Amino acid sequence: MDSRLSQYVVFADALYEFWGDISEIVIHDLRKPNSSIVYIKGNLTQRKIGEATTNIIINELSKKPEERSRYLITDMKTKNGKILRSLSIFLSDEQGVYGCFCILIDPTYLNLVIKYFESFLNKNNTKVIEKEIVDKSDIDIPFVTERLIDEAISDSQVTVEFMQKEDKLKVVSRLQNKGIFLMKGSVERVASKLKISKYTVYNYLDEIKAEKTYGK
Questions:
Q1: All structural domains of the chain with their residue ranges
Q2: What is the pLDDT of residue 132?
Q3: pLDDT above 90 for 37
Q4: pTM of this prediction?
Q5: How many CB atoms lie within 10 A of CB 167?
Q6: For residues 41 and 63, what is the distance between their CA atoms, to the nearest angstrom?
Q7: Does residue 205 contact residue 190 with C-beta atoms inside 8 Å?
Q8: Tell me, what's the pLDDT at 139?
Q9: I need a labelling partner for 123 at 20 to 30 A (CA). Which of 1, 3, 87, 106 fits?
């Protein structure tokens, strides 16, 4: 075997080991088309070393060099009528095309697998649960903060003008439980709504934290 072709034997062996019996890998020496097969792994076509190349390859080689494809993807019919999927890659150097590396696959088993998964994934037999995905960039953070503060004040059932320290502490505690103080600018907004300073809000948070830590 020509050394230029023998270097592809390892690829033929690896591909056949990967695909197994549903594949056939063939190396052709196209300098002698009537006995072009110099290496073959697999037995899908029942061909042997020394047999001729295919008409598909001959037809491609008969074209002008500038009109030829670097590879061909075709369907090939075997002697027993089985249809195989074929990939033929032409090998060339500065002197022109000298060989062809062919991969043939029997799609029968693959088609069975595809049909199985199509049946398995059939929407008529599957309940699909759709969830609404919210892009964080679409959320108006200031608006959400304002709404949560207003709700907390409303839940206290006391208007801000008549709130005592205890009432405002409860509002701040509710807001802390909702995680509102993780939002930027929330302390200032709460202070404005409750008509107190932001330092008072920080003091309330310290009191709430101390109460949770040590109890009353």
A1: 3-108, 139-214
A2: 44
A3: yes
A4: 0.52
A5: 17
A6: 29
A7: no
A8: 42
A9: 106
Give just the sign of the alpha carbon dihedral 133, 136, 138, 144.
positive
Instruction: State how far the Cα of 208 lies from the Cα of 192, in Å rounded to an integer.
Output: 20
Q: Helix or strand or coil: residue 176?
A: helix
Q: How many CB atoms lie within 10 A of CB 184?
A: 10
Question: Which residue bears the tokens 């070393």?
Answer: 49
Closest CA to 188 of 180, 178, 179, 198: 198
The answer for residues whose C-beta is within 8 angstroms of residue 47's C-beta and 6 or more apart is: 26, 37, 40
CATH assignment of 3-108, among 1.10.10.60, 3.40.640.10, 3.30.1330.90, 3.30.450.20:
3.30.450.20
204's CB contacts (< 8 A; 6+ apart) are 168, 169, 172, 173
What span, in angstroms and rounded, lies between the C-alpha atoms of 173 and 205? 8
- pLDDT recorded at residue 214: 62
**How high is the pLDDT of residue 87?**
93
Residues 6+ apart with CB under 8 A from 16: 23, 24, 25, 41, 42
CA-CA distance, 26 to 100, in Å (whole number)?
8
Contact 69, 60 (CB under 8 A): yes
pLDDT at residue 136 in the model: 41
Q: By C-alpha distance, which of 18, 104, 123 is closest to 57?
A: 104
Max Cα distance, the chain (Å): 104
Residues near 128 by Cβ (< 8 Å), separated by ≥ 6? none
